[in-house]
């Protein structure tokens, strides 16, 4: 079964074209794998793929800098129902 | 460590720009009155579609900031520079997240008088062009939606006024700004190099007027820019 993390990694590789390593705890903003623009694409992908609703205030560095942060956000929103 | 400091800018910016950057840092460290500037002059088309979907924009508002508004006081810009900007045909747009001021940008309709070096930029045709400058996102809100939402709002504001292209100058050393403009499909129109010390200013550019020497504050080159 594909994990949430695998799905997010797949998006980064396929849509953003990153071919290198993807450490769930690495700061993707600092590594310049993500930036202010593709964070929006990432948020839209998460909403559509995981069927959760994100608010504008969810789109922060704390929630999107690391893959582990994104997985945690998805889990929180799922728990919120 | 020292070698890294010397080679770092070359790795980051390339050989020529890295050496240019290093020379400017050296002038600054030596407390020389001379400073160097390296601009890329660019044009980008006004976007027709929003980058941020409406659902994510809840709680985000973009509105015009006028002379005397309190938000001006939180901008990292001196009062003299603000006064200089308001003397021109400028509009300032601010983005607010649940009422909190998170980002702003300035637009100038007609010729723009640069405030970092002495220079005049004239985007043409005037009725279809605007000059954008000082796009700023407050540090706590970097990587939030303020940035993209502000551009969406600016594009709508400009589309409604018949503007087709936004022109700007980007420091060669501001990599974040360069990346942003690349996302918008920028077209580089030319490069301009400035050496400035008090009233003296030497400008060399890859486009007209190519070279300009100023010996006093009233002398400045003019760039006519067409997308």
Account of the protein in words:
- The complex is a heterodimer of chains A (81) and B (227).
- In chain A, helix 1 packs across helix 4 (67-80).
- Chain A has helices at residues 4-14, 36-50, 61-64, 67-80.
- The longest helix of chain A has 15 residues, at 36-50.
- Helix content of chain A is 54%, strand content 0%.
- The radius of gyration of chain A is 12 Å and the shape is globular.
- The mean pLDDT of chain A is 91.
- With 81 residues, chain A is mostly helical.
- Chain B has 227 residues and is an alpha+beta fold.
- Chain B is built from five helices and twelve strands.
- The longest helix of chain B is centred in the N-terminal third of the chain and has 15 residues, at 15-29.
- Chain B is globular and about 50 Å long.
- The mean pLDDT of chain B is 92.
Could you tell me the radius of gyration of chain B in angstroms? 18 Å
Task: Describe the strand arrangement of the main beta sheet of chain B, using strand numbers.
Answer: 2-3-4-7-8-1-9-10-11
CATH second-level architecture of chain B: 3-Layer(aba) Sandwich
Largest sheet of chain A: none
Quickly name the level 1 CATH class of chain A: Mainly Alpha
CATH superfamily of chain A, called what? ACP-like
Q: What general form of chain A does the structure show?
A: globular
The end-to-end distance of chain A, rounded to whole angstroms, is 22 Å
What kind of oligomer do you see?
Answer: heterodimer
What is the CATH architecture descriptor of chain A? Orthogonal Bundle
Beta content of chain B: 35-45%
Mean pLDDT of chain B: 92
Order of helices and strands of chain A: HHHH
> Total domains of chain A, how many?
1
């Amino acid at each position: 079964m594909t994990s949430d993390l695998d799905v997010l990694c797949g998006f980064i590789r396929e849509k953003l074209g990153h071919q290198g390593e993807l450490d769930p705890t690495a700061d993707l903003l600092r590594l310049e794998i993500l930036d202010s623009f593709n964070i929006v694409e990432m948020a839209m992908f998460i909403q559509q793929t995981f069927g959760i609703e994100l608010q504008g205030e969810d789109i922060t560095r704390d929630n999107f800098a690391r893959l582990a942060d994104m997985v945690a956000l998805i889990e929180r929103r799922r728990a919120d129902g | 460590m020292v070698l890294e400091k010397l080679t770092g800018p070359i790795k980051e910016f390339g050989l020529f720009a890295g050496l240019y950057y290093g020379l400017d840092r050296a002038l600054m460290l030596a407390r020389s009155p001379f400073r160097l500037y390296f601009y890329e002059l660019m044009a980008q088309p006004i976007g027709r579609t929003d980058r941020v979907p409406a659902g994510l924009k809840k709680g985000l508002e973009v509105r015009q900031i006028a002379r005397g508004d309190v938000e001006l006081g939180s901008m990292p810009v001196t009062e003299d520079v603000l006064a200089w900007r308001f003397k021109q045909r400028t509009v300032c747009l601010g983005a607010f997240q649940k009422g909190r001021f998170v980002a702003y940008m300035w637009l100038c309709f007609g010729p723009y008088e640069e405030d970092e070096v002495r220079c005049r930029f004239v985007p043409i045709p005037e009725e279809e062009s605007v000059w954008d400058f000082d796009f700023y996102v407050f540090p706590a809100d970097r990587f939030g939606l303020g940035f993209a939402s502000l551009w969406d709002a600016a594009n709508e504001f400009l589309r409604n006024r018949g503007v087709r292209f936004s022109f700007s100058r980007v420091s060669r050393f501001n990599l974040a700004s360069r990346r942003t403009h690349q996302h918008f499909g920028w077209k580089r129109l030319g490069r301009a190099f400035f050496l400035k010390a008090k009233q003296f200013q030497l400008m060399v550019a890859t486009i007209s007027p190519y070279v300009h020497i100023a010996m006093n504050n009233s002398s400045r080159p003019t760039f006519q820019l067409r997308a």
